[in-house]
Write a structure and sequence with these properties.
Layout: H1 5-11, E1 17-22, E2 31-32, E3 38-39, H2 41-53, E4 57-62, H3 65-70, E5 79-83, E6 92-94, E7 99-107, E8 125-129, H4 133-141, E9 146-150, H5 153-162, E10 167-171, H6 172-179, E11 186-187, E12 193-202, H7 208-221, H8 224-231, E13 238-239
Parallel strand pairs: 1-4, 1-5, 8-9, 8-10
Antiparallel strand pairs: 2-3, 5-12, 6-12, 7-10, 7-11, 7-12, 7-13
Length: about 240
């Protein structure tokens, strides 16, 4: 299917599709090539967008989703594969999610906390990676507990242990790894949110945004996203519902 020249001009103004990739999500970027380029579901989604536009792809890696979001209006990337959150939507036009990841809590050995509902209480300190999609969700929704923010996933675990915090927030697949290092620790049942992984483009791209949205729905409906999850063995990712 041919793509309108107006859409190609918006998404690849330099003649190349520059795709911002969040390197900190180990489910979406599962490895790197010998030259250091990211490999995984997220880069493959970007590659398919470039293929349909008929332009080359340049991956622009970021250490964190927050840094990727900060560059939305700096003409550094044309699409950004990132969790869709209200704060980011001020500068980025998002598709619906193409996949999602359960976010939940881990508590230490002996904790009286038994459920998700027990966490948002006075005196509860939650270790969380600041500016992650689930961290932004907690900022918007936690009313009584205290968020203790760190810069990285590893730092979040370290602070949780070192300062004997009551709760560690994270993506369930990562917490499954973390709980093995913490004798007696437990992961709570259920989720406080699901991190919605979407494709964003700067808000100025008013013609391209609907095209990207339609692409994502087609990729979910036809099994393309499911195939990428299976290809990269991204256990813990699920295909998001159709919008």
């Amino acid at each position: 299917m041919s793509v309108s020249p107006d859409i190609v001009a918006e998404l690849a103004p330099t003649g190349v599709l520059r795709a911002g990739i969040n390197m900190s999500n180990f489910l979406l970027v599962t490895s790197k090539t010998a030259s250091g380029d990211p490999v995984g579901v997220s880069p493959d989604m970007a590659a398919e967008v470039a293929r349909r536009l008929g332009v080359p792809l340049k991956l622009v890696p970021y250490k964190s989703p927050g840094e990727l979001g900060d560059d939305a209006e700096k003409n550094i990337w044309d699409i950004g594969n990132i969790g869709a959150e209200p704060q980011r939507a001020k500068t980025i036009a998002f598709t619906a999610a193409y996949c999602e990841i359960e976010s939940t809590y881990l508590v230490p050995a002996g904790s009286p906390i038994q459920s998700i509902a027990d966490v948002d209480k006075p005196g509860i300190r939650i270790s969380v990676t600041g500016r992650s999609a689930y961290g932004l969700w907690l900022e918007n929704n936690i009313k009584q507990a205290t968020l203790v923010r760190t810069d990285t996933l590893d730092a979040s675990l370290e602070k949780f242990v070192a300062e004997k915090l009551e709760v560690l927030a994270g993506l369930r697949p990562r917490l499954i790894d973390d709980v093995k290092k913490l004798p007696g620790a437990r992961i709570l049942d259920g989720q406080f949110s699901a991190v919605q992984q979407a494709i964003g483009t700067p808000k100025k791209n008013v013609k391209a945004a609907p095209w990207l949205a339609a692409f994502v729905e087609e990729a979910k409906r036809t099994g393309f996203v499911k195939g990428l999850i299976e290809k990269h063995k991204a256990n813990g990712l699920s295909v998001a519902p159709l919008a």
